[in-house]
Design brief:
The structure is a single chain. The chain has 185 residues and is mainly alpha-helical. It has a single domain, classed as Up-down Bundle (Fumarate Reductase Cytochrome B subunit). It has 5 helices and 2 strands, in the order αααββαα. A two-stranded antiparallel ribbon has the order 1-2. A hairpin with a 3-residue loop joins strand 1 and strand 2. Helix 2 packs across helix 3 and helix 3 runs antiparallel to helix 4. The longest helix has 39 residues. It is elongated, with a radius of gyration of 19 Å.
């Protein structure tokens, strides 16, 4: 019998994973799209990013309240690497949406156009950023955009390591790691 993650933890993990991959794909496509399509893709990107932020907060609360399964047998280095990558992923899953939200909130005209989640739910800009003007507005927008972009590249590298480690444990070590974080029995 494999010790598994709880159903809510599994659902949240995969919803967050799907959101991250959708946003990485959409974020990398902005420059190649015509202006009219880029606006729609940006609105989708923004909605997914804010959703990921909410899901990561829920997942963190769930994790604090519910003990995960015991770690699989691994070397000390693998255990430290796994812990470090998981902490980095949690940090980036908060920092990326927050920095993107901050960049959008500091964008010229953001005060008149707050985010609308999935075209239906009126959201809000981060307080203090939408009211900036001139150089301060431009600097805040540029800084937060740069943080958002840099962190997106870091999460791509962290995800490659995370997925590679999961596949190594599943297929090389035969530890049935994927069954612990998948649906069913």
């Amino acid at each position: 019998m494999i010790e598994r993650y709880s159903k809510p933890a599994v659902v949240l993990h995969w919803l967050i994973a799907i959101g991250i991959f959708l946003n990485l794909k959409s974020g990398l496509s902005f420059d190649d799209l015509p202006k009219d399509k880029a606006a729609a893709v940006f609105a989708f990107h923004e909605s997914i990013g804010l959703s990921v932020l909410g899901l990561v907060i829920l997942r963190s609360l769930w994790r604090f309240a519910h003990k995960p399964p015991a770690p699989l047998p691994a070397t000390r280095l693998e255990q430290k690497a796994a812990l470090g990558i998981h902490h980095l992923l949690y940090l980036l899953c908060v920092l990326i949406p927050l920095s993107g939200w901050a960049a959008a909130s500091a964008h010229k005209g953001a005060e008149a156009h707050p985010p609308v989640l999935f075209g239906t739910v009126q959201w809000f800009n981060l307080p203090g950023l939408a009211g900036l003007t001139g150089d301060r507005q431009h600097q805040a927008h540029q800084l937060m955009g740069a943080v958002h972009s840099a962190c997106a590249w870091v999460i791509m590298a962290a995800l490659v390591l995370h997925i590679a480690a999961a596949l190594k444990h599943q297929f090389w070590d035969h530890q049935k790691l994927l069954q612990r974080m998948w649906f069913g029995r």
